[in-house]
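User: structure tokens for this one?
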Amino acid sequence: MAQLSTSTLERLPGLPAARLASIPFAAAALAALLRAAKPKEVVFSAFGMREGQMLELLPPAIRRQDPLISACEMALERTGRFSISGLELLEWLTPAFPVENETEQRLRLAICLLSEIGWSKHPDYRAVHAYHRVLRLPYPGLTHPDRAEMALATLIRYGGEEEDRMVAPVRALLDERRLNRARATGLGLRLAHTLCGGAPGLLPQTKLRLTDKALTLEVPSGAAIFLSEAVDRRFARLARVLGVKPTLLA
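Assistant:
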């Protein structure tokens, strides 16, 4: 960019007009700095020095909080429709994710916390609205693939189709493992909210179990409240994504 003319820079999308004159000089200065310092890695902050200074002034207990999870919890408090907790959803779904590291579970918790982010929108475009909202969350602690996985899982949670043209660029950020995790998380949340209606305390009365051959959903004997055509259909879809057969025990 240090070698580009102003007329060339003007044609590049996304560059602020006020910065066009200084960009070549800034790029040249950065290049010289990299040659001199020879760093192994360069990190660009999405925020600024003032935010960093504010963070340093916070009490240690607050600084130790996960910025992503804290932000999702705050969003849940502001926009959540029901009082079912993200941890309740996380724990209920955990048997469907037997091979999962700490980073993956953290991201799944964030998705669970935001699983009602689109409840106030019209059903006809709820999935698309929730997808875009999660994709553009102004939260720290996320990589681009993280955002893609969260957004895709949220889209599927609301019944959206991942084959939609608007999703294709986002899907390209994910490998097959992350794509399958997004599908399973989204379908699992769709099933969970169907079972409990978002009300706290109902979901733990049911249980998921995953083996090499089957995904089993256990519901209390005689508890017709948990059984419906929608539950059967969504449970079968989740089992199919996990590559096993669905088994319902009532």
